[in-house]
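Project channel, design review

CF: Before we commit to the Viridibacillus arvi constructs, I'd like one complete example in the thread so the newer folks can see what an input/output pair looks like. Taking PBS lyase.
RD: sounds good, go ahead.
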Amino acid sequence: MDEKELLKLIEKMADRSSYTSSEDSPSWNAYRKAREITGTSVIPSLNNLLEKSKDREIRDGIYFILGKIGENTGDERVVEILLKWLEKETDKYTLSSVLERISEQKIVKECSTILKFIKDERWLVRQDAIRALKVCKSSIAEEALIKIISETTDEYDLIYANSVLFEIGTYKAIPHLLNLLDHPKGDVKCSALSALNEIGDASLLPTFLEALQDRSGAVKGYAMLGINRHGNETAIKPVIERIKNMLKRKRNVVSDDIILALGFLIRFEEGNEEIHKLFDWIKTKKWDFLFESEKKWITANITKFQLEPYSTNGAG
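CF: and here is what came back for PBS lyase:
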């Protein structure tokens, strides 16, 4: 593909008047073709087009193709070009586009250019810069994220920083993530628990058990993920109580919480009377309080439900 063909493809991508979700749309087809490009020989031509073009939508298309080539091939020249132009661009939407393309790469060895934008006054740029740090698997990137979650008051900055720490964080981040469990916003606490679950170990079980008492159902769900991964016998009673509280009444929202909790308990069911009593209670009293997906899972995974009849009258 020569430079003229590239420009023609990019112009089709930029033609918003023709863009629909239909596969017959010229713009949609152009994006599909761009996603599949693996020929690295076009990289110099794309850089040359960036030197020539001032149109924002054309530049966004060039960055899109560069990002996909880098994602598809791992060619390090893509990162070099994206970082070079990241320092030159000024429009917030274009900066956001470049940062998003950077975040699609396999790894970025030198992150100093990205770090310049994590305090940008424009939230769009700042938060895309935070997310781009996930490809900067370095202590410098982690320290920058720790500084963000220790100092910022912006809940979305916190959520994005936590999500990146989930991917690149180490034990160093744990104390700072723990501090966020007192945050008033549930989404911040959920993202912190998710990162702690990934970074931490069984020593954090008391933290997950405490979070299981939070008023937010979403926070309880993330706490249960941590318990399921890092829990031991000491978590049995709190998990049983969680199941009982969930089944006090019929629920309107489907979630994996019951299945996750039961999946944890069946690891310890042998010889445990409390767990067997819970299973009996679910069978005889709460079967009709379960969603169909939960019934199928229970029937397939818990022996007691396979061997013995159970009530379906839902009597309290």
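RD: helpful, thanks. The chain has 19 helices and no strands.
CF: The mean pLDDT is 93.
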